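As a warm-up, study this chain.
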Amino acid sequence: MICRTLLCLTLLLAGAVQAAQSPALERIRQKGVITLGYIDGAVPFSAAGGTEQPRGYSVDLCREVALGIRAQLKLANLETRWVALTIQNRLEAVRSGRVDIECSTKTWTLSRQAEVDFSLVTFVDGGSILTKSASASGRLLDFDGKRLAVITGTTTEKVLRESLAQRSIKAEVVTVRTRPEGLKLIEEGKADGFAADRTTLIGLVAGGQAPGAFRLLDEDFSIEPYVLTLPRGDPDFRLAVNRVLARLYRSGEITKIYSRWLGNLGPPSLLLSAAYFIQGVAE
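Now compare it with the structure written out below.
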């Protein structure tokens, strides 16, 4: 009788441990809802859609992840809820559980990984500077004695300041909170350039009223590996997300998503193609 009781307790404890392995998956299973965060104005990665549904490359990846998690949990239905975030509060939104995944242009850094966790790399970009087409500045060195705008609290701000210091470039760095604010400073002549990730800068001015009014530097001053942001300390949830991404990379389905949002920029770079290939991990 004692052995039977101990066996029951062991099985119960094992079940409890298994359920507790992934708080996020258990929460999603119980509520039948997955909550996804996005940043508006980060075209072509994430932006508010006309039907109040966000759209973009990272948004589509998260939609695929939601479908994959529904299948992994064997749920008949899984509601997807979208929450608009800002660049300044997106880490806290994941850390506090306000969203299960943040889907935009978060760059993977070790200091951030002390607070949250990350998926496989979803895109590889580089930091660049947007200027007016009439500007004579073609390299970072040309901004000596000039004003550069950058979004506060981003990896771009940190790397920009480091790059300026390393090259002894005495440029004034002006911080803004959003990409449209940075663009406005250039338009009004209050900044000589706006530093951000190259692809998002292209998206910022694409389809504008003055095509050809802006251009990018000939060089990048940083490498930005994009990831989906996940809660820290939940390896089973990370595995569930990465299973979906690895399948997209392995099967080549990622090409359709890339072409839909980034195809006008040309094929994936060699670096991005290598990232897809290396991360197409087998089951």
